[in-house]
Amino acid sequence: MPPRSRHSPAEALALDTYVKLMRASESVTARAHTVLPADLTFTQFAALEALYHRGPLFQSELASKLLKSGGNLTLVVDNLERDGFVTRERDSHDRRFIRVALTTKGHKLIATVFPRLATSLANEFAALTPAEQTELARLCKKLGLGSPSPAAAPAP
């Protein structure tokens, strides 16, 4: 059966590349994250990791770092707070801002889990040479920043 729509060569290449990127990402993530506790979501882990390496952050800063909406992150932080991993405190100068910090329990969890994930990721990326890993990182950063060229804009 022929494809339902025809794409330009550039669109076909972009779609093929996108599918491969997403499949690789999902596959590596699924394998690497087997070291995480079953009841800890990826976003919860990411929040704990950011707080572990950056220190206390305003909830809006944490949402921005994790590329999550404020509403989504509120639920994540609610659950982390419920489980005793983080605390929230309103800023004394501007009560609209809420600072999120690790508790001792949260610090112990991420300090235990993070090294396991780092080892798991090193094992996953061992499929690539160090030079390939560096190049992949460079390309991902370039792609993540987006294209400033007018050709990237969708046609009207």
Layout of strands and helices, then pairs:
Layout (H helix, E strand, L loop, with lengths): L8 H24 L9 H13 L2 E2 H8 L3 H13 L3 E5 L7 E5 L1 H22 L4 H16 L11
Antiparallel strand pairs: 1-3, 2-3
Helix pairs in contact: 2-5, 3-4
Q: What's a quick, concise take on this entry?
A:
The protein is mainly alpha-helical and 156 residues long. 62% of the residues lie in helices and 8% in strands. The chain has helices at 9-32, 42-54, 59-66, 70-82, 104-125, 130-145; strands at residues 57-58, 86-90, 98-102.
Can you tag this structure with a few keywords?
single chain, 156 residues, mainly alpha, Arc Repressor Mutant, subunit A, 3-stranded antiparallel β-sheet, 3 strands
**In percent, how helical is the residue content?**
55-70%
Weakly predicted, low-confidence segments? none
- Quick one: how many beta strands? 3
User: Which class of one domain in CATH terms?
Assistant: Mainly Alpha
Instruction: Assign an overall shape.
Output: globular
- Taken as a percent bin, the fraction of beta residues is 5-15%
The radius of gyration over CA amounts to 20 Å
Annotation field: number of helices:
6
The structural class is mainly alpha
